[in-house]
Amino acid sequence: MGQVFNFVLVIFLIICALAVQHTDDLVGSIIIFAAYSLIMAILWLLLAAPDIAMTEAAIGAGVTTILFLVVISRTRRMEK
Question: I want to staple 37 with a disulfide (CB 3.0 to 4.6 A). Which of 31, 49, 61, 77 is the partner?
Fold first, then answer.
C-alpha cells in the first residue's frame, strides 16, 4: 500500500511540474509550485528523511513562495 501511495505522489509531482510550465498566470504558477514543494516534503518524510522534509517544507513551500509573491507584487505587469 505504501508503494502505491508513493507512486501516486510522484505522478502528482510530475503533473505539478507540467502545470507550472504551462500556466500563464504567475500567481497560479507560484501556488502550484508551493503544492509541488509540499508534496515533495511529504515524500521525503515517507522516505525516512525528516530533516530534509522539514527543510523542503520551510524553504521550498514557505520562504520561496513568499519571496516570489513579494517580487511579483512589486513589479508592474502589462496586460494585453
Answer: 61
The three cell numbers of residue 11 are: 505522478
Burial of residue 69, with CB atoms counted within 10 A of its CB: 0-12 exposed, 13-18 middle, 19 or more buried? middle
Length of the chain: 80
Amino acid identity, position 73: S
Contact between residue 53 and residue 44 where contact means Cβ atoms under 8 Å apart: yes
pTM of the complete model: 0.85
Per-residue pLDDT of the chain (80 residues; tens, 9 = 90+): 778 988 999 999 999 999 999 999 889 999 999 999 999 999 999 999 999 999 999 998 899 999 999 998 898 866 65
